[in-house]
Amino acid sequence: MAIRPIRLFGDPVLRRRAIEVVDFDTEIRQLVTDLTDTMLEAPGAGLAAPQIGVGLRVFTWYVDDEVGHLINPSLDLSEEVQDGPEGCLSLPELTYDCIRALSVVATGFNMYGDPVRIEGSELLARAIQHETDHLDGVLFIDRLDAEARKAAMKEIRESEWFGMEHPTVRVSPHATRGFGL
């Protein structure tokens, strides 16, 4: 079990686009294990690699007692939308209603490099969209309307954790092509 520190809002790694995984090796399998262990310990409904300082396109989820992961995701979103509460492990104790697609079909790979397809709606769709956003350097507060985002930013600035020193970034064993720290 490897519980890793979760990066908080303000850490630059959360605003960078993660790079695609090209080697499905033991390091990727360890990353998926670390993400899963950290997510379950937190606890959370999902966790993306940048949230533990790794700039690779990998995330895990835990929704309706199902644990899963996806590498190099590509999403096909429904036109129907849902509006509901959303939070983030990188923004502790912050919850705001956020509009997301109601359902999603996500394709990508598992930790062994096998193609996978996940279909989900409601909470699973929300988690997959949220975590994929993390891989693109997007936080859920970026999707809020101007008034809600202003309130969220005020709440962040007033939080106990805002401005805390962040842990050292783990250097990826994979070629980062300038995207790693």
UniProtKB/TrEMBL annotation:
It comes from the Bacteria. Signal peptide: none annotated. Fe cation binds at C88, H130, H134. Its EC number is 3.5.1.88. The active site is at E131. The keyword Signal does not apply. Keywords: Hydrolase, Iron, Metal-binding, Protein biosynthesis. The keyword Cell membrane does not apply. Gene3D superfamilies: Peptide deformylase. Its cofactor is Fe(2+). It catalyses: N-terminal N-formyl-L-methionyl-[peptide] + H2O = N-terminal L-methionyl-[peptide] + formate. It is an enzyme of class 3 (hydrolase). One of its GO terms (biological process) is translation. GO terms for molecular function: metal ion binding; peptide deformylase activity. Pfam families: Pep_deformylase (PF01327). Removes the formyl group from the N-terminal Met of newly synthesized proteins. Requires at least a dipeptide for an efficient rate of reaction. N-terminal L-methionine is a prerequisite for activity but the enzyme has broad specificity at other positions. This is Peptide deformylase. It comes from Nocardioides immobilis. The gene is def.
